[in-house]
């Protein structure tokens, strides 16, 4: 089974900061890595699929990069509405989520 | 507008069964793989099951294989999850999700239904 290690678990940043969240797969998952945002009390929402494709309606300040085993979600300029927990998901072989990154405002 | 509405959650005793439903609207249900994902209280997300467009292929992680069964009724635009031999560790909010990549990403999610397994 593929394991997904997400880092950091917690992140505190200021409005306007550039924020990066990482996900590492235990084996090669090609480009099959997605990012989800979950606000408190809500269902998860897709941000990016297949490493770097932006889902419909998602602001362009969100972007993804990586390949193979190492992937990154970047928020270019943090906004107050971005406070949430972020999860990565691999779907190269079955489906495995990362443990999550809780993003707070400093 | 894509809508997914789960129902059927509740309190159930360990060892008993429960069936969840997900009503889909706003898209051609029969064209998409569908999935269930769960989230234990204050915990992360765990994929539970996926089903192909016709229902001929189903996929499960080891944690639920043999106990849970995913199914669909394309005529009713509905997805189901039959959960048997429930354990306390199955306590979670269960989300229905649309798979947009044929064994790919989960593009749309329902609001979830809470299942509590406790005596």
Characterization of the model:
The complex is a heterodimer of chains A (106) and B (119). Helix content of chain A is 0%, strand content 51%. With 106 residues, chain A is an all-beta fold. In chain A, the strands form two sheets. In chain A, strands 2, 4, 5, 6, 9, 10 and 11 form a seven-stranded mixed sheet that branches. A four-stranded antiparallel sheet of chain A has the order 1-3-8-7, with no helix packed on it. The mean pLDDT of chain A is 98. With 119 residues, chain B is an all-beta fold. Helix content of chain B is 0%, strand content 51%. Chain B is built from no helices and eleven strands. Chain B starts with a strand and ends with a strand. The A-B interface holds A 1, 32, 34, 36, 38, 42-46, 49-50, 55, 87, 89, 91, 94-100 and B 35, 37, 44-47, 50, 59, 61-62, 95, 100-101, 103-112.
What layout of secondary structure does this protein have?
The complex is a heterodimer of chains A (106) and B (119).
Chain A: E1 4-7, E2 10-13, E3 19-25, E4 33-38, E5 45-49, E6 53-54, E7 62-67, E8 70-75, E9 84-90, E10 96-97, E11 101-105
Parallel strand pairs in A: 2-11
Antiparallel strand pairs in A: 1-3, 3-8, 4-5, 4-9, 5-6, 7-8, 9-10, 9-11
Chain B: E1 3-7, E2 10-12, E3 18-25, E4 33-39, E5 45-51, E6 58-59, E7 68-73, E8 78-83, E9 92-99, E10 106-109, E11 113-117
Parallel strand pairs in B: 2-11
Antiparallel strand pairs in B: 1-3, 3-8, 4-5, 4-9, 5-6, 7-8, 9-10, 9-11
């Amino acid at each position: 089974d593929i394991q997904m290690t997400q880092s950091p678990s917690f992140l505190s940043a200021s409005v306007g900061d550039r924020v990066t969240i990482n996900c590492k797969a235990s084996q090669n998952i090609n480009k099959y890595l997605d990012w989800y945002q979950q606000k408190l009390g809500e269902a998860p929402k897709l941000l990016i699929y297949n490493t770097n494709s932006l889902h419909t309606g998602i602001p362009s300040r969100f972007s993804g990069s990586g390949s193979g085993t190492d992937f990154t979600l970047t928020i270019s300029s943090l906004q107050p509405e971005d406070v949430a927990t972020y999860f990565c998901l691999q779907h190269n072989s079955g489906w495995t989520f990362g443990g999550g990154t809780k993003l707070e405002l400093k | 507008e894509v809508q997914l509405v789960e129902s059927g959650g509740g309190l159930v005793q360990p060892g008993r069964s429960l069936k969840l439903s997900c009503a889909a609207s706003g898209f051609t249900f029969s064209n998409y793989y569908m999935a269930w994902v769960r989230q234990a209280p204050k915990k992360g997300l765990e994929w539970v099951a996926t089903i192909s467009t016709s229902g001929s292929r189903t996929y499960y992680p080891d944690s639920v294989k043999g106990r849970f069964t995913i199914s669909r009724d394309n005529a009713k635009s509905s997805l189901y999850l039959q959960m048997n031999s429930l354990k306390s560790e199955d306590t979670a909010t269960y989300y229905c999700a649309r798979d947009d990549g044929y064994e790919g990403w989960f593009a749309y999610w329902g609001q979830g239904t809470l299942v509590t397994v406790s005596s």
